[in-house]
Amino acid sequence: MKKLIVLVALVLSATAALGNVAERVEGKLINKRLVTAHETYQLTSLVAGAQECASGIFTIVEDTFGGSDTYSLINVDSCFKTVRPIFCPEVYMPVCAANGEEERTYSNTCFMNGSGAKFVHLGECGTLE
User: Where does the signal sequence lie (predicted)?
Assistant: First the structure.
């Protein structure tokens, strides 16, 4: 009986420990939710200063006692200066943009904004006369 109790205690502690594995995700903070390209995480707590970062890379852990499918945001790994889009439509409306000195054609403004490039003109690069 003693061995069974010890075994159950070990299984429960291992399960709790596995629930606290930290995970790094990129997304947007919206009303105590972290929205990513693939999933939305309901947050029960945020690290200090997280609300000032609307979009970035965050470290979260699953709450073991906060209820099912809830998470705590424990670190802001990287905060993006501009909000990067999570989804971009696959529509070809080319724009020319520059990332530093190099100009590049992007499929549309969504992909341009996601790259952080600066708008130059509508249409493909090299088409203005």
Answer: 1-19
